[in-house]
C-alpha cells in the first residue's frame, strides 16, 4: 500500500486520471437535464393552484422593507424549464467541459429550486424566501465547519473519517464547559477537545500507521461511547448544573445587517457562524497563496518530494490534523451552544458524515465543500419551510428529506464521476521508505 | 520515527522498549514466556482487551459518585477510596459477565430458562453482528469499505418484514421466503453502491453513507403508509410478522435464541470457503490486494465489485432478517439497532478473517447483552460497553502501541489482514 516509486526509480509514474466524462455518461446527464426541464415546464407549470406565487423577503429585525414579490407561476416555470432543457440539449450536442458542468449543475439546481418554490407558493401562503436562506445557512454551518476540518487533514494526506466524532466531542465539551464556566469557555473547550481527538487521530495514523479509514470509524465509536457514558454519568441526573449552557443567539452586525435579503441571511447569525466566515476565507486563501498552503498541498500530494526539499512532513501533518480537529470541534459547538443549548446523546446524528461527503463532493477544495454543505443545509431548511406552505400536492417530508442524499449520489456518480483525492491521502509517510 | 523495516511497520526504538530488555529464554518456562512476550495475534488480542478493560476501569472510577465522595476525605481514610473504586469496577464487570454468560445466583433456582438466559441473550445480540460483520469483512477483503450495512439492514427489514406480515404461507416455507426477501433487499441496496462504483467510480464510502440516509427516509415514509403501517395508524410501526415467518426458537419459547444463529454459523463457514477456496474468492482477494495486478491478470474489476457488493448486501440482509424475523418481529425505523456500525468494529476485531469475525461477533454480542444487566443493576452507564469496544479495536488496529505498552518483542505476527485503501484506491 505504499507509494509505487522506489529510491532507484527516477521516473515518477502518474496514474492517468480520467479526463472528461465518457460519451455514455454525457448522454445520460443530458437526458436527465432535459427530463428535469420538461418536468418543470409542463408538470410544475400546469399544476399550480393559483396563478401567482408570493415571495416574501422580510425577515425579523430587518430595517429596510422589501415588498413582497408576486410571481406569475406558470410563465416562470416555463421559462426555467426551457432554460434547463436548452442546457441539456447543448450538453447532448456539444457537451460542457467538466469544469463548466459543475457551474451548470449548480445553476440548474438553483433554478429548479426556485421553480419548485414558486409552485409550492401557489397555495396561497407566502414563501418566506429570506428566512429560508437564513435557516439554510444556519443548518449548513456545522457541515461547513466540519468539512473545513476534514479538508485541513486530507489536503495534508491524512484521511479524516472522524469528523463525526470530533463534532460530537466538541458538542459535549461545549455544553459542559459552557454551563460550568460560561459560553466562551464552552467554545474554547469544544475547540480543545476536538483538537485532542485530532491529536489521537494524528498519533495513531502517523506514529502507529493505522489504516486511517478504520481509525476514523473507531474514533467515532469511541467519541459516541464516551460522550454517551459521560452524559449518563454527569449530565442526565443533574442537567441544570452540567447541561444548561444557554446558547449564542443571533447577533446582528450594525449596518451590514440591514442590507435587504443579504443582511438577515449573512449578518444576522451567531458569533460562531461569523468565526466560520473567517475560517472558510482563511483556509481558502491560505491553501493556495501561502507557504503553509503550498507545503500542505505538497505533503498531501507527494510527501517524498516535500521531504527532499526540507519540509518536515510529519510535523506538518500533526499540525494540520490537530488543527482540523479543532475546527471540527468548533462545528460541534454549533450543535449545542450555537443552537439548542443542551447536549443529548448522539446529537451530531451523522452530520459529520455529511460533512465528509461535502469534502469529497467538493473535491477537497474549500469552495467546493462550502457549496456542497450549503446544498445540504438548504435542503434541510426547505423541508421545514414546505411544512408551513400549502403546496398543490403535499409532499411527504420523509421523501423530501431523502432528496439531498439522492442528489449527492447522482452528483458523485454523474457530474463528479471519479473524484481524485490528494495523491498521498491515506498513505502514511515513513522517512526513507519511499 | 527513526527507521523502517520491511513490512510497513515502524521500528519501535524508544529506549524503554527494545529487545535488549527481554531475558534469554531458558527451558520450558522461558519458552512459555517467549510466547507471551512475542506478538502473536492471539496475544495481541488478549492484551488489547486487557488494556481496554483497564482504561474502562479508570472511566468507571472517575465517574463513580461513591468513589468521588470517598476521595474527598482521602487523607483521612484512604482505604475507603480504594474499596469504593473496587466496588464500582468489580460491580460493573461482574454485571456484564452475569448479563452475558452466567448469573451464579440463578443456579440455585434450577430453572434452565433462567440459567441459560444470559447465554441466549448473547446469542441473540451476536447473530446480527456476525452477519453484518461478515458483510463488512468480505468488502474489506475486496478493498471496499462497506459503511452501508445499516441501510442494507433497514432495506432487508422492509422486504422481510413485508413478506412476513402481509403474505400468509405454510410453516417452513414462509420463513424461508421471508429470509430470501430480506437477502434480496440487502443485496439490492449494496448492489446499487457496487454498480455505481464499478460503472461510474463513485466512491463506495460516500454512496453507502448516503444510501443509509435514503433507507432511513424510506422506512420512515413506509411506516406512515397504509398497508405497511399497523392499524390504528397512530404509531410508526408495522403489523407483527406472522408466526409462520419467524425463525423457530432454539431452546424452547422461554429463551429468545433462534435458528438464525445456526444460519450465522453456516454463513461464517460459507464466507470462509468463498474467500479461501473458491475461484471468485481468489479474484476478490487479488482485487483487494492489488488492483493493477488483478487487471493485468485479466480479472474484470468492475464485475468483481458488483458481485462482491451483492454478496455483502445479502449478508447484511441476513442480519436484517434476523432482527425482523426473530428478535423484534415488527418493522420500526430503528430496527437496525446500531448493528450496521458495530459490524465495522466487529470486522476489525476479526482481522478480516471470517472465523475471527465470528468470534468477534460473539464477544461484542456478549458485551451488548451484558450492557443490559449493567444498566439494570449498577450505576455505571451502559455506554461503557461501547467505549470498551472502541478501545479494543483501537488497540488491535495499532499493534505498535500494544507492543510499546507491554514491551513486547516484535515478530512476524500482529499485522492486520484488513485491506482497505484511501480514497484513490
In brief:
The complex is a heterodimer of chains A (434) and B (425). By secondary structure, chain A is an all-alpha fold.
Describe this structure in words.
Chain A is mainly α. In chain A, 67% of the residues lie in helices and 3% in strands. Chain A has a 3-stranded mixed beta sheet. In chain A, helix 5 packs across helix 14 (351-361). The radius of gyration of chain A is 23 Å and the shape is globular. Chain B is mainly α and 425 residues long. Chain B has 2 domains: 1-64 and 380-425, no CATH class; 125-378, ABC transporter involved in vitamin B12 uptake, BtuC (Orthogonal Bundle). Chain B has 16 helices and no strands. Chain B is globular and about 70 Å long. In chain B, 51% of the residues are buried. The model of chain B is unreliable at 1-25 and 412-420 (pLDDT under 50).
Q: Largest interface here, residues on each chain?
A: A-B, 68 and 62 residues
What CATH calls the topology of the largest domain in chain B is ABC transporter involved in vitamin B12 uptake, BtuC
Q: What structural class results from the helix and strand content of chain A?
A: mainly alpha
Specify the number of helices of chain A.
16
What spatial form of chain B do the alpha-carbon principal axes imply? globular
Q: In the CATH hierarchy, what is the architecture of the largest domain in chain B at level 2?
A: Orthogonal Bundle
Helix coverage percent of chain B: 55-70%
Tell me, briefly, the overall form of chain A.
Answer: globular
Radius of gyration computed on alpha carbons of chain B: 24 Å
Biggest pleated sheet of chain B: none
Q: Into how many domains do the coordinates of chain A divide? A: 2
Helix and strand sequence of chain B? HHHHHHHHHHHHHHHH
Quaternary arrangement of the chains shown?
Answer: heterodimer
SSE order of chain A = HEEHHEHHHHHHHHHHHHH
Number of strands of chain A: 3
Spans where pLDDT lies below 50 across 5 or more residues of chain B: 1-25, 412-420
Amino acid at each position: 500500500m505504499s507509494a509505487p516509486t522506489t529510491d532507484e526509480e527516477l521516473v515518477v509514474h502518474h496514474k492517468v486520471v480520467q479526463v472528461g466524462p465518457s460519451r455514455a455518461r454525457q448522454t445520460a446527464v443530458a437526458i436527465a437535464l432535459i427530463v428535469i426541464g420538461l418536468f418543470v415546464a409542463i408538470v410544475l407549470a400546469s399544476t399550480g393552484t393559483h396563478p401567482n406565487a408570493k415571495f416574501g423577503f422580510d425577515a425579523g429585525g430587518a430595517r429596510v422593507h422589501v415588498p413582497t414579490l408576486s410571481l406569475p407561476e406558470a410563465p416562470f416555470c416555463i421559462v426555467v424549464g426551457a432554460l434547463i432543457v436548452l442546457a441539456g440539449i447543448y450538453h447532448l450536442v456539444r457537451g460542457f467541459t467538466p469544469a463548466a458542468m459543475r457551474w451548470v449543475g449548480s445553476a440548474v439546481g438553483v433554478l429548479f429550486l426556485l421553480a419548485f418554490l414558486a409552485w409550492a407558493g401557489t397555495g396561497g401562503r407566502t414563501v418566506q424566501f429570506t428566512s429560508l436562506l437564513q435557516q439554510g445557512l444556519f443548518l449548513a454551518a456545522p457541515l461547513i465547519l466540519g468539512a473545513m476540518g476534514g479538508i485541513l487533514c486530507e489536503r495534508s494526506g491524512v484521511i479524516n473519517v472522524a469528523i463525526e466524532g470530533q463534532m460530537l466531542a466538541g458538542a459535549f465539551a461545549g455544553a459542559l464547559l459552557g454551563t460550568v464556566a460560561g459560553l466562551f469557555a464552552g467554545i474554547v473547550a469544544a475547540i480543545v477537545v476536538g483538537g485532542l481527538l485530532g491529536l489521537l487521530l494524528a498519533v495513531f495514523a502517523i506514529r502507529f500507521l493505522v489504516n486511517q479509514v478504520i481509525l476514523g470509524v473507531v474514533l467515532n465509536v469511541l467519541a459516541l461511547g464516551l460522550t454517551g457514558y459521560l452524559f449518563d454519568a454527569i449530565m442526565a441526573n443533574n442537567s441544570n448544573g452540567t447541561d444548561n449552557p444557554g446558547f449564542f443567539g443571533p447577533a446582528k452586525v450594525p449596518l451590514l445587517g440591514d442590507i435587504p435579503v443579504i443582511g438577515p441571511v449573512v449578518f444576522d447569525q451567531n458569533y460562531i457562524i461569523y468565526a466560520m466566515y473567517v475560517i472558510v476565507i482563511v483556509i481558502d486563501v491560505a491553501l493556495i497563496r501561502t507557504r503553509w498552503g503550498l507545503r500542505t498541498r505538497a505533503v498531501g500530494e507527494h510527501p517524498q518530494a516535500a521531504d527532499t526539499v526540507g519540509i518536515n512532513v510529519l510535523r506538518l501533518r500533526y499540525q494540520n490534523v490537530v488543527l482540523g480537529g479543532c475546527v471540527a470541534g468548533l462545528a460541534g459547538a454549533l450543535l449545542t451552544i450555537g443552537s439548542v443549548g443542551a447536549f443529548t446523546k448522539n446529537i451530531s446524528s451523522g452530520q459529520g458524515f455529511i460533512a465528509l461527503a461535502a469534502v469529497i463532493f467538493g473535491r477537497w477544495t474549500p469552495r467546493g465543500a462550502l457549496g456542497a454543505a450549503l446544498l445540504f443545509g438548504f435542503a434541510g431548511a426547505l423541508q421545514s419551510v414546505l411544512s408551513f406552505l400549502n403546496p398543490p400536492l403535499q409532499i411527504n417530508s420523509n421523501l423530501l428529506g431523502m432528496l439531498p442524499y439522492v442528489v449527492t449520489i447522482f452528483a458523485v456518480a454523474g457530474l463528479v464521476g471519479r473524484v481524485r483525492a490528494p495523491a498521498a491521502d491515506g498513505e502514511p509517510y515513513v522517512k526513507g521508505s519511499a | 520515527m527513526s527507521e523502517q523495516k520491511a513490512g510497513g511497520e515502524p521500528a519501535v526504538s524508544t529506549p524503554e522498549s527494545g529487545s535488549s530488555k527481554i531475558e534469554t529464554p531458558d527451558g520450558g518456562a522461558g519458552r512459555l514466556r517467549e510466547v507471551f512476550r512475542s506478538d502473536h495475534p492471539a496475544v495481541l488480542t488478549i492484551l488489547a482487551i486487557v488494556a481496554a478493560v483497564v482504561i474502562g476501569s479508570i472511566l468507571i472510577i472517575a465517574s463513580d459518585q461513591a468513589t468521588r465522595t470517598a476521595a474527598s476525605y482521602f487523607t483521612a481514610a484512604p482505604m475507603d477510596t480504594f474499596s469504593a473504586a473496587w466496588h464500582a469496577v468489580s460491580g460493573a464487570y461482574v454485571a456484564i459477565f452475569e448479563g452475558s454468560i452466567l448469573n451464579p445466583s440463578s443456579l440455585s433456582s434450577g430453572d434452565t430458562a433462567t440459567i441459560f438466559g444470559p447465554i441466549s441473550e448473547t446469542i441473540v445480540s451476536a447473530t446480527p453482528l456476525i452477519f453484518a460483520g461478515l458483510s463488512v469483512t468480505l468488502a474489506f477483503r475486496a478493498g471496499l469499505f462497506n459503511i452501508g450495512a445499516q441501510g442494507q439492514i433497514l432495506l432487508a427489514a422492509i422486504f422481510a418484514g413485508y413478506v412476513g406480515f402481509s403474505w400468509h404461507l405454510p410453516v417452513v416455507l414462509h420463513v424461508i421466503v421471508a429470509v430470501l426477501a430480506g437477502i434480496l433487499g440487502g443485496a439490492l441496496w449494496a448492489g446499487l453502491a457496487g454498480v455505481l462504483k464499478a460503472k461510474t467510480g463513485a466512491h463506495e464510502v460516500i454512496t453507502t453513507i448516503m444510501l443509509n440516509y435514503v433507507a432511513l427516509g424510506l422506512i420512515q415514509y413506509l411506516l406512515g403508509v397504509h398497508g405497511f403501517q399497523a392499524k390504528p395508524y397512530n404509531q410508526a410501526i408495522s403489523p407483527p410478522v406472522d408466526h409462520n415467518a419467524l425463525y423457530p426458537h432454539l431452546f424452547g419459547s422461554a429463551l429468545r435464541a433462534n435458528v438464525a444463529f445456526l444460519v450465522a454459523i453456516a454463513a461464517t463457514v460459507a464466507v470462509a470457503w468463498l474467500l479461501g477456496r473458491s475461484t471468485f474468492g481468489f479474484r476478490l482477494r487479488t482485487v483487494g490486494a492489488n488492483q493493477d495486478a488483478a487487471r493485468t491478470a485479466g480479472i474484470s474489476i468492475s464485475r468483481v465489485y458488483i458481485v462482491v457488493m451483492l454478496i455483502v448486501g445479502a449478508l447484511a440482509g441476513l442480519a436484517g432478517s434476523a432482527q425482523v424475523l426473530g428478535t423484534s418481529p415488527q418493522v420500526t425505523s430503528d430496527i437496525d439497532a446500531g448493528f450496521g456500525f458495530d459490524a465495522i468494529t466487529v470486522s476489525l476485531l476479526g482481522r478480516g478473517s471470517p472465523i475471527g469475525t465470528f468470534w468477534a461477533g460473539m464477544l461484542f454480542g456478549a458485551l451488548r447483552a451484558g450492557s443490559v444487566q449493567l444498566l439494570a443493576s449498577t450505576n455505571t452507564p451502559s455506554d461503557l460497553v461501547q467505549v470498551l469496544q472502541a478501545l479494543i479495536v483501537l488497540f488491535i488496529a495499532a499493534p505498535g502501541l500494544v507492543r510499546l505498552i507491554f514491551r513486547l518483542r516484535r515478530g512476524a505476527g500482529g499485522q492486520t489482514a484488513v485491506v482497505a485503501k484511501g480514497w484513490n484506491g
